[in-house]
Design a protein that fits this description.
single chain; seven-stranded parallel beta sheet; six-stranded mixed beta sheet; 13 strands
Length: 350
């Protein structure tokens, strides 16, 4: 009997996007007769433990990422936190070495965790950022990131290589390393023909304090909306909490099955312009409105690009008013990126 290979799947705990886009990979590994072992920290780890209670998990050192309260201080805050991040990466490398040995790991899939790789087993890095946008230091941050990517056996980019694509200059560079592979629109969700229940779905996540600041603002605005609203806060807690505030049904979090149903039962979506959200909405062919995280260059770039292409409108967090959602009808919505990539074809690496 052939022994099942054990694959360490390690998403970064920075918002919930890295963890959620690992869900289809974990499911594909199970279908392909591999044994996934989940490694992360914080909300990302808790989310995956809820999704896959039967799987073994391990805790990795936290990057302790927090956003600045004001956009203009975003880069300064990231620079201030960089020694802390580098320290966590160093710990992560040591921890990974121990996990490979103690858990008998045969391969690694790291979603943006810079130190989770090994010279002893094939190691994969998942990212949509071959270019890391940091304003006037983009060239420098991109070079460093590309150098780190070369330490991995392969780099998987959740997008299509050709045009049109979703990530634009984030995931496409002139001279990509030979280890880069485009793996299509990676999403845990499927489009389903379900009756409409909500006129608007609001879903948010991301590091604090920006997540809470946006939640407070949007709850006030949603109270003025004419129609049923579903509000998912993206806070992973021990118990699911559901409350009703007039026209708004509020969930602290939803699992993948519940989210898939909710998206399909909603007419339009209001959310951050995080890349995993863009992937999900493209898979579901949804119309949306984006509010990028203040000061986060990547989300601002994606929002601007998708608006310019006539797909999704956006505005700054402090400017948002509920009436702005009327703009959605003038935009095409996401979709049109056809991707039938079979994830299991990637696993021959292991």
């Amino acid at each position: 009997m052939i022994q099942q290979k054990r694959i360490l799947v390690a998403p970064l705990n920075w918002g919930l996007g890295h963890a959620t886009r690992c869900i289809p990979i974990i499911k594909a590994l199970i279908k392909g007769n591999f044994i996934p072992v989940i490694a992360s920290d914080g909300e990302a780890l808790r989310l995956l433990q809820k999704e896959f209670p039967q799987l073994e998990t391990a805790e990795l050192p936290s990057y302790k990422i927090k956003y600045a309260e004001k956009a203009k201080y975003f880069k300064l805050k990231m620079l201030w936190d960089s020694p802390k991040i580098l320290k966590a990466v160093k710990k992560e490398k040591k921890h990974t070495k121990e996990l490979v040995k103690s858990l008998h790991i045969d391969g690694i899939i790291s979603d943006n965790r810079l130190g989770v790789y090994s010279k002893k087993v094939p190691s994969v890095f998942i990212t949509h950022q071959l270019n890391v946008l940091t304003g006037n230091t983009t060239w420098f941050s991109s070079k460093i990131h590309q150098k780190i990517i070369k330490k991995f056996t392969e780099c998987w980019v959740p997008d299509v290589k050709e045009t049109p694509n979703l990530s634009g200059k984030l995931g496409h560079i002139k001279e990509a390393s030979e280890n880069v592979k485009y793996i299509g629109v990676l999403s845990r969700l499927e489009q389903k023909d379900l009756p409409r229940k909500y006129k608007l779905m609001i879903i948010i996540s991301g590091p604090e304090p920006q997540r809470s600041m946006l939640a407070v603002h949007l709850l006030k605005e949603a109270a003025k909306f004419d129609g049923e609203v579903l509000f998912v806060k993206g806070v992973i807690e021990d118990e699911q909490k559901i409350t009703q505030q007039n026209n708004i049904t509020v969930y602290n979090y939803m699992n993948s099955v519940e989210l898939e149903t909710a998206f399909n039962k909603s007419e339009v979506v209001l959310s951050r312009s995080g890349y995993t959200t863009v992937l999900d909405l493209a898979k579901l062919k949804k119309k949306a409105f984006f509010i990028p995280t203040p000061g986060q260059y990547e989300q601002e770039y994606l929002a601007e690009r998708l608006q310019e292409e006539g797909l999704v409108p956006f505005c700054k967090q402090e400017d948002f008013k509920i009436e702005m959602l009327d703009k959605i009808k003038d935009y095409k919505g996401l979709g049109g990126i056809e991707s039938t990539f079979d994830l299991r074809s990637l696993f021959h690496l292991f």
